[in-house]
C-alpha cells in the first residue's frame, strides 16, 4: 500500500490558452506577427522621422515658368562649374540635359557669307532631378518638372523648377537669384526687350534687339530733345508726384503721316533709357476692356507702353466679317478708363501713335491721358541734311554733295514748295523714303543725287486687266 501524497490537480484555463501557447505552430505565428508589426511600426517611424528631418533640415523653393526668374535660374544653372573633388565628381553628374540654341548670320568685309550662320549652344538641366555645386561644401538639388496642364495664353505646358538646400545654407538662395539676375542682364546688355500681350500675360516677342542709337533717328530740329528732356524730367520727379498725390504716369501722343519715324523714335528712346517696350494690339481678337485694364496694371518693370495706330484700333468695323468676327472688343470708354481711370496703373510711360489725329476722341487726348502731343511730320531741309551727314559724311567731307542734294530736293518741291520755280507743285516726302534712297545707294552719293526724283510721292490708280500680250515694264 503506497504512502505517496496525491498529485495536485493543475487548474485548467477556461479557454485553454496554455495549450495554445504551448503549441509551437501558434507561438511561431504570434512571433512572426509581432515581428511584422514591429517592422511596420519601425518603417512608419523611420518615414516620419525622415520627413521631420527633411522639414527641419531642408528648405525648398519652387519657381513657376510664368515667373521671370525661371529663365534666369535656368541660364545660371547652365554656367560651367568647378566640380573637382571626389564628392563633387560623383554627385554632380547631369544626365538629363536640354539645349537652348541661338543663331546669327556671319558676315565679314562687307560680304555676307552664303548660308553660313554662327550657332551658340547653351546646355542646361533638363527635366528630372539634378545636384549642382554652388561652391565647395554647398550643394543644391534641382528638380525640373513638366505639368500635364497647359497655359491658356500660349498652349505650352506648365513647368516648375524646385531648388532644395540644407537649412543652414538657406542664405545661398539670395546669392543664386542675385547672380542669375546679373547674368540675365549681361545677356541683354546693349539690347532692347520687346514684350507683347498674349491673353492675360506679357511674353517676350522674339529675341532682344540691339539698342537703336538715339542719334540714328532724325526728327525735326529740337523735337527729339524736347521729348527726351520731358521724359527724363518725369523719371526724376517721382517723389514730387507722391508728395502731391498725383498719379505717377505720363502719356505722349506722336501723330503725323506714316514713315516719319514715330515708332523708330520710341524704340531708340527705350534704348537710351535702358527700358523695354511693351506693345498692345488693340485690334486683336479677344482683347476686351477688362483684359486691357489688367494688362496695363501688370506692365513689365522699366518698360514703355506702346499703343500704335489708336485711330484704326477704335474705328467702327462691320458687324460680322467672313471669319465670324463680330466687331471691335475694346471700346473707346474702356481705353479711356485703362489709361486714366480707377483701374489705371501707375509708374507708367505711355506712347500713343496715330496717322490721323482728327479721328481721335477729344477725351482721349486730354491732359492726364496725353500730357504731350508732338507732330512728327514730313521731312524738312534740316532732317534731309542731318540724314545726308549720317550716311555720307565720311566721304562728303566738303559738304558740296549735301548742298547739291538739298538743292535738288528743293527744285523738286519736296520741302513744301521751297523752290525757285513757281511751276513746281508743293510736295512732301518722308524720312523713310530718304533713308530707303540712301540705303539703295550705299557709298554712292552721286547715285543718291541722280535718283532724288524717286522721292516724289507716287499715286496709284486702280489697275485694269492687262490685254493679251501686254507686259508690265515699269519699275517698282
TrEMBL record:
Transmembrane intervals: 20-41
UniProt keyword terms in alphabetical order: ATP-binding, Hydrolase, Membrane, Mitochondrion, Mitochondrion inner membrane, Nucleotide-binding, Transmembrane, Transmembrane helix
Topological category with respect to the lipid bilayer: Single-pass membrane protein
KW Transmembrane helix (keyword) present: yes
Catalytic reaction(s) noted: ATP + H2O = ADP + phosphate + H(+)
Transmembrane helix among keywords: yes
GO molecular function, one term: ATP hydrolysis activity
InterPro entries per the UniProt record, alphabetical: AAA+_ATPase (IPR003593), AAA_lid_BCS1 (IPR057495), ATPase_AAA_core (IPR003959), BCS1_N (IPR014851), Mitochondrial_chaperone_BCS1 (IPR050747), P-loop_NTPase (IPR027417)
GO annotations of cellular component type: mitochondrial inner membrane
Subcellular location: Mitochondrion inner membrane
Domain AAA+ ATPase as annotated: residue spans: 248-380
SUPFAM superfamilies: P-loop containing nucleoside triphosphate hydrolases
Domain BCS1 N-terminal: 33-217
Protein family according to the UniProt entry: Belongs to the AAA ATPase family. BCS1 subfamily.
Name of the molecule in the record: BCS1 N terminal-domain-containing protein
Organism annotation: Podospora didyma
Higher taxonomy: Eukaryota, Fungi, Dikarya, Ascomycota, Pezizomycotina
Amino acid at each position: 500500500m503506497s504512502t505517496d501524497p496525491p498529485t495536485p490537480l493543475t487548474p485548467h484555463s477556461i479557454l485553454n490558452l496554455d495549450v495554445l501557447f504551448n503549441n509551437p505552430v501558434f507561438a511561431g505565428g504570434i512571433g512572426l506577427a509581432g515581428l511584422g508589426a514591429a517592422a511596420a511600426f519601425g518603417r512608419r517611424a523611420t518615414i516620419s522621422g525622415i520627413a521631420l528631418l527633411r522639414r527641419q533640415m531642408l528648405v525648398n523653393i519652387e519657381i513657376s515658368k510664368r515667373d521671370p526668374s525661371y529663365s534666369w535660374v535656368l541660364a545660371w544653372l547652365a554656367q560651367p562649374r568647378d566640380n573637382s573633388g571626389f564628392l563633387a565628381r560623383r554627385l554632380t553628374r547631369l544626365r538629363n540635359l536640354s539645349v537652348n540654341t541661338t543663331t546669327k548670320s556671319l558676315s565679314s568685309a562687307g560680304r555676307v557669307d552664303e548660308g553660313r550662320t554662327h550657332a551658340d549652344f547653351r546646355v542646361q538641366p533638363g527635366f528630372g532631378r539634378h545636384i549642382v555645386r554652388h561652391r565647395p561644401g554647398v550643394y543644391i538639388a534641382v528638380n525640373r518638372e513638366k505639368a500635364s496642364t497647359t497655359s491658356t495664353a500660349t498652349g505650352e505646358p506648365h513647368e516648375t523648377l524646385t531648388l532644395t538646400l540644407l537649412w543652414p545654407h538657406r542664405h545661398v538662395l539670395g546669392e543664386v537669384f542675385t547672380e542669375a539676375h546679373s547674368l540675365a542682364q549681361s545677356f541683354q546688355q546693349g539690347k532692347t526687350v520687346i514684350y507683347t500681350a498674349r491673353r492675360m500675360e506679357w511674353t517676350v516677342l522674339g529675341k532682344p534687339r540691339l539698342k537703336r542709337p538715339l542719334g540714328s533717328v532724325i526728327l525735326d530740329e529740337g523735337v527729339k530733345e524736347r521729348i527726351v528732356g520731358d521724359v527724363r524730367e518725369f523719371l526724376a520727379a517721382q517723389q514730387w508726384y507722391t508728395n502731391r498725390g498725383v498719379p505717377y504716369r505720363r502719356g505722349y501722343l506722336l501723330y503725323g503721316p506714316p514713315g516719319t519715324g514715330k515708332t523708330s523714335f520710341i524704340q531708340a528712346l527705350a534704348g537710351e533709357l535702358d527700358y523695354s517696350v511693351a506693345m498692345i494690339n488693340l485690334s486683336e481678337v479677344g482683347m476686351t476692356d477688362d483684359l486691357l485694364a489688367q494688362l496695363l496694371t501688370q506692365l513689365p518693370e522699366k518698360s514703355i507702353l506702346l499703343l500704335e495706330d489708336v485711330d484704326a484700333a477704335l474705328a467702327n468695323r462691320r458687324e460680322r466679317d467672313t471669319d465670324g468676327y463680330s466687331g471691335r472688343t475694346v471700346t473707346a470708354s474702356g481705353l479711356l478708363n485703362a489709361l486714366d481711370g480707377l483701374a489705371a496703373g501707375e509708374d507708367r510711360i505711355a506712347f500713343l501713335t496715330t496717322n490721323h489725329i482728327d479721328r481721335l476722341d477729344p477725351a482721349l487726348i486730354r491732359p492726364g491721358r496725353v500730357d504731350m502731343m508732338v507732330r512728327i511730320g514730313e521731312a524738312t531741309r534740316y532732317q534731309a541734311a542731318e540724314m545726308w551727314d549720317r550716311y555720307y559724311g565720311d566721304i562728303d567731307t566738303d559738304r558740296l554733295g549735301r548742298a547739291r542734294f538739298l538743292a535738288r530736293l528743293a527744285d523738286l518741291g519736296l520741302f513744301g514748295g521751297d523752290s525757285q520755280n513757281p511751276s513746281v507743285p508743293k510736295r512732301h516726302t518722308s524720312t523713310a523714303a530718304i533713308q530707303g534712297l540712301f540705303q539703295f545707294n550705299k557709298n554712292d552719293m552721286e547715285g543718291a543725287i541722280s535718283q532724288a526724283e524717286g522721292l516724289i510721292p507716287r499715286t496709284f490708280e486702280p489697275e485694269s486687266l492687262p490685254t493679251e500680250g501686254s507686259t508690265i515694264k515699269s519699275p517698282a
